[in-house]
From TrEMBL:
<dbReference type="Pfam" id="PF09496">
    <property type="entry name" value="CENP-O"/>
</dbReference>
<keyword id="KW-0158">Chromosome</keyword>
<dbReference type="InterPro" id="IPR018464">
    <property type="entry name" value="CENP-O"/>
</dbReference>
<keyword id="KW-0137">Centromere</keyword>
<dbReference type="GO" id="GO:0031511">
    <property type="term" value="C:Mis6-Sim4 complex"/>
</dbReference>
<dbReference type="GO" id="GO:0005634">
    <property type="term" value="C:nucleus"/>
</dbReference>
<protein>
    <submittedName>
        <fullName>10461_t:CDS:1</fullName>
    </submittedName>
</protein>
<comment type="similarity">
    <text>Belongs to the CENP-O/MCM21 family.</text>
</comment>
<keyword id="KW-0539">Nucleus</keyword>
Length: 259
């Protein structure tokens, strides 16, 4: 008899085979034709939807078609790849994207594809992606030309967003920094560190939303001359590279933990 480990290896090889077969389906043009065969010809607006409500709706659909234990196990294991694509009951196509940070699952995001009434082209029917991801631009550039690239680019944006967000959360939880500010996209992060005789202001800009690394870092040291009501500032360019080369919390720890 096969050992449990051998059985798991066989199952994993099977999943890899399934993954490779899926990639073959998602080839340029050919995959678009395959997807068009199962989309429902109905005119609809492209619209973002409530993430929680839609996730519950998708879960219920998956429960109805996942009564067999083998299929449930397949879905759980295939989740490791981070992406699944399958037809829905309404004959549309659903793309599911899992997000990760530090080997931990976070939220899932969904894109539902439909077929445009004219031109036989795929289009986005609904989605749960954050508004700052340029989904319309990605759709126009790749959806009907190279679906595999479309999926990869969307995944890059989602993984980078979750990584930036979780790094900010870790900073707030682990460092004691209370003045950290950021926006919804986490593409601008600012905070200050109080030293004995000065304050260090740190500003990180993430111009590339497909990356979790900042594109620009500015670190300035402030010296307050209270008697003369004067503030002197000094740019600390030599240490800015720490935040360009390391994660947010690691760079912070390297520079400030032992001060």
């Amino acid at each position: 008899e096969k050992s449990e480990i051998e059985e798991l290896r066989d199952k994993f090889r099977g999943l890899l085979k399934e993954r490779d077969e899926l990639k073959q389906i998602l080839e340029i043009e050919e995959n678009s034709k395959n997807l068009r065969e199962i989309v429902y010809e109905k005119d609809a607006e492209i619209s973002p939807i409530n993430h929680g409500e839609f996730q519950e709706e998708i879960f219920q659909q998956m429960v109805q078609i996942s009564n067999q234990r083998e299929y449930e196990e397949f879905l759980k294991a295939y989740r490791l790849i981070g992406r699944t694509i399958f037809p829905t009951k309404s004959k549309r196509v659903e793309m599911k994207f899992e997000t990760f940070y530090r080997a931990k699952y976070h939220e899932s995001h969904y894109i539902i594809l439909d077929q445009a009434k004219r031109g036989n082209q795929l289009r986005i029917f609904k989605h749960t992606l954050p508004h700052f991801i340029p989904l319309g631009e990605i759709e126009n550039d790749y959806l009907n030309k190279d679906v595999d690239k479309f999926v990869n680019i969307v995944d890059d944006y989602l993984q980078a967003y979750v990584a930036r967000r979780e790094e900010v959360k870790l900073m707030r939880q682990k460092t004691g920094v209370t003045n950290l500010t950021s926006n919804n996209a986490y593409d601008l992060v600012e905070f200050s560190v109080d030293l004995e005789e000065s304050i260090v202001d740190i500003s990180l800009t993430y111009s590339n939303l497909r990356s979790s690394a900042p594109t620009d870092v500015v670190i300035t040291q402030r010296f307050e001359d209270i008697e003369n009501s004067v503030t002197r500032r000094k740019r600390l360019k030599k240490i800015e590279k720490y935040f360009l080369d390391m994660s947010l919390i690691k760079a912070f720890n390297e520079l400030f933990v032992d001060l």
